[in-house]
Amino acid sequence: MIKFHPAKSLLQAHAAGSLSPSMAIAVSAHCELCEECRHSVDEFSAAEATQLINAEQIDFDTDVQADFSNMLSGIIGDEFEPITVTKMSPQAYVEVGGERYTLPTALRRYSQIDWSSMGGISRGRLPLDEGKTRASLLHIGMNGSVPSHTHKGFELTLLLSGNFTDENGTYEPGDFIMLSGEDHHTPVSRDGCLCYTVANAPLHFTSGVSKLLNTVGRAIY
């Protein structure tokens, strides 16, 4: 059962089309897994459309209506030759760490990204141009963990498959976890998991050989 959801403001911004690409992917993927948030976005989208229609409604005079009707009749009356368009369907899954994971629709165009690995952690960065903000697919292998760390900026983790635990509980697919520099945690995955992450600064490790671990943090970011 999904316990962690995007804030209402994020859902409203998603419905309005005002989120950055990385965050729009996150909310869209979450909504594909969460019926409750999908319903909320549908309601916000309907309200947004109603406001737009009311704001831009135009009263046509009789002559304009007649011209518009004639133009529409001409378009409808024209004969068009059918055009066949062949589209390449994006791959619906990724393979990493010896496992195959099905991707939400919003992430399928990135199924062929390159992966880099360090220990039991693999990261595939999405080719989004958002300055310091970076979006990635992150895989933690079976019985793998990310050492205890905090965040110099924000970190969003959307769990796509598998599960992991930290000091705050256990997370299931669909959980949308937003953390800030005030949070620290130690994610551990018994069975392995795949996450979508968005962060605007490297992780800052707080235990172990910090200098070495913070090099790892920059690699994961």
From TrEMBL:
Recorded superkingdom: Bacteria
A Pfam cross-reference name: Cupin_7
InterPro entries (UniProt xref): Anti-sigma_ChrR (IPR012807), Anti_sigma_zinc_sf (IPR041916), ChrR-like_cupin_dom (IPR025979), RmlC-like_jellyroll (IPR014710), RmlC_Cupin_sf (IPR011051)
Domain ChrR-like cupin: 110-198
Protein name listed in UniProt: Transcriptional regulator
Native source organism of the sequence: Veronia nyctiphanis
